[in-house]
Predict the structure of Ribulose-phosphate 3-epimerase.
Amino acid sequence: MAVQISPSILSADFARLADEVAAVPNADWLHVDVMDNHFVPNLTLGLPIVEALLKAAALPIDCHLMITDPDRWAPAYAEVGAGSVTIHAEASSAPVRTLREIRSLGARAGLALNPATAVEPYDDLIGEIDMLLLMTVEPGFGGQKFLDMVLPKIRRARGLIERHGGEVWLQVDGGVSADTIERCAEAGADVFVAGSAVYGADDREAAVASLRSLAEG
Ligand code: DX5
Ligand code: ZN
């Protein structure tokens, strides 16, 4: 279970995205939050900016789609070259088809669950995904407080993943910082999204390195 760090550009300076991306060369992924102002009460960016980032970034892109119609849009993000595309279970009406489509287009397929969504009903989908994303805040904004109540679910999700062979990555997103990352790692997460904890730091590269060493324990 190798630790991976995925800085979220939601907390970066959107006017200087190329520089902000270059500031985290020691990260594993670049987490890009696509929000449509319907699934979540916030609006960020879409396909054209993801395409621009793909050209500007040396890191692979981890696209987190917080949109009402992921079945319609997710394949397009895989098609342009995102390394990973994650859809929300609460928003998808045909997750099996969409996840298979993402994979067939060469991207890793991710399934995201909000804090109040139980993981057990998705046990049968674990064979269809490469990553399970557990939200540790309500989706929509950076800089929110980590929800401790999700920790038991992280543990249970790790158990389900192990029963399926242990190949699926377990990502946590929201309020992940030097104060909370160890608890997440202990509970079984292995991919850590961090927005404000990285882009709110003066030295972004040092922030990534210290999160990684805390997660590695
Ligand atoms: C929130 C987004 C997160 C956000 C996390 O809905 O999915 O990726 O950027 O920000 P922090 O790490 O500041 O909580
Ligand atoms: Zn996210």
